[in-house]
Amino acid sequence: MPRVRGAQARKDIQLGSSLVYLVSFSYIAEPLQTDTTFSKFLSGVDEDFRHVNLRNLKLRQTAVSDHSMVALTTIFPNLRRLDVSFTGIRKPSLWVKQAPYLEKLCLTSTAISSAELCVTIHSLPRLKILAIGALGVGTSPNTTINNTSSMTLHDDDLALVTDLLAEHGRLESLSLVSNTKLSLMRSRESRALCRMISRVGRKCKVRAFLFLVATQC
């Protein structure tokens, strides 16, 4: 039987009956230019089909869209770990409630708004690992992490996220790398990053806070 291309699982997974036992899937093909590949895949799947065993799905640096994620989270209802970093994802609120068991979510370098981020966090009561580096950058070739005008996460937004995560109480790992608009203000009252570290960060097992911070919290 032919092997599944693009899949990285603990064991080699073959097409056929064993496919239903697939636990991890990582799409590692060449960068996609459109959402066509996902659309073709979805068009061939019965609308009642559910792959209940899949736990880990990595779609990093692909052209997956929110539209495709609505379908994918329906097909894979028991996802625990999802990576859509460096993709065209903008509105996770459209599909995240269909993945209520998510424990890890990577949204690094996606063009989602702070409001979308808050809705996403609120919708995932089991979330333990969150990566939200370089929010707003997206996948445009004309946008880089050095372009601060593209960033969407500000100190005021971080304050809202901090309150949500503090109330959430389950977070173990948080990455806020390269959100270059954070902590540009140096006044004590506006040190949102310090408040985040105090209320949420110190409780995490893993932290990644890389900012333009000159003062100590």
UniProtKB/TrEMBL annotation:
SUPFAM superfamilies: RNI-like (SSF52047)
InterPro entries: LRR_dom_sf (IPR032675)
Superkingdom of origin: Eukaryota
Name of the protein in its database record: RNI-like protein
Species assigned in the record: Armillaria tabescens
Highest classification ranks of the organism: Eukaryota, Fungi, Dikarya, Basidiomycota, Agaricomycotina
